[in-house]
Amino acid sequence: MSILVNHLDHIYNPGTVFEVKALSDVSFSVDEGEYIGLVGHTGSGKSTLAAHLNGLMKPTGGGIYYNGVDIASEGYNLKELRGHIGLVFQYPEHQLFEEDVFTDVCFGPKNLGLSRTEVEMRAYDALKAVGIDDDHFYVSPFDLSGGEKRRVAIAGVLAMKPEVLILDEPCAGLDPAGRDEILAVADELHDSLGITIILISHSMDDLARHVKRILVMNDGKLVMDGTAREVFSHREELEAMGLAVPEVTAVLADLKKAGIPVRDDLITVEEAAKEILRVFGR
Fold first, then answer.
1. Residues 89-113, buried b or exposed e (16+ Cβ, 10 A)?
2. Which of 24, 113, 130, 169 is the most exposed, having the fewest neighbouring CB atoms within 10 Å of its CB?
């Protein structure tokens, strides 16, 4: 599996007074098994970019290649592509509509024309993969907690058996427990099933704990692409874009400025705790 984004442009309302260039000359690649974070302030182009990756939007310029083939080419099977590259929108539980959880998750694979047995096996496997108990299968999705609804919505996309799963702000509106549940699901899908994950998030602390690589969008352009540690080393540049570094990274930097000889390139609470104990000889 490979995705190549090649000099991608997108203009909304071209040729009108409302013309806006949402993406400008964006290029990067995604390899099989990666766990990538995608960040940027509101209006930076990250959601527009995500919508291009599985063909929901067509480029104004440049292209996107899935396994070497331009997905905007004439006759390309976008329905099949969306089975390979799944996109879970922000607040996906708003798209739940069937009378029970199991039927809702069956909806996607059923539309692929699969046998009833295959559809139900996929739905069962997807629900188990996101941690939904059997006794919740035949209840209304609207009777579930916020975190459970979000996991059911993810299962609906997962039942399509994607190779790539794009999660657009999957923790938005959830309490800390619900957020941890969703991120644990993403980790499990990546670590156990080998699914390539692209996680769109505004939480730098979540990205520091979970992703291996971060893409930073600003004003429609890709301005950073590196490991989480590399990206978070650019604190001033991130802050100039209205972004931030993980809280512990900022705290360590302040401690170093105060004369305490700590490393300021650490990005998780666990790393910071060990470093502070080391400095104070414990």
1. bebbbeebeeeebbebbbbbbbeee
2. 113
Average pLDDT, the chain: 94
- Does the structure show a pLDDT above 90 at 92? no
pLDDT for 90: 87
Residue 281 has pLDDT above 90, yes or no: no
The HSE-up count of residue 6 (CA atoms within 13 Å, CB side) is: 13
Residue 164: predicted pLDDT = 98
Domains within the chain, CATH numbers bracketed: 2-245 (3.40.50.300)
pTM (whole model) above 0.70: yes
Span 125-145, mean pLDDT? Answer: 94
Cβ neighbors of 194 (< 8 A, separation 6 or more) are 32, 33
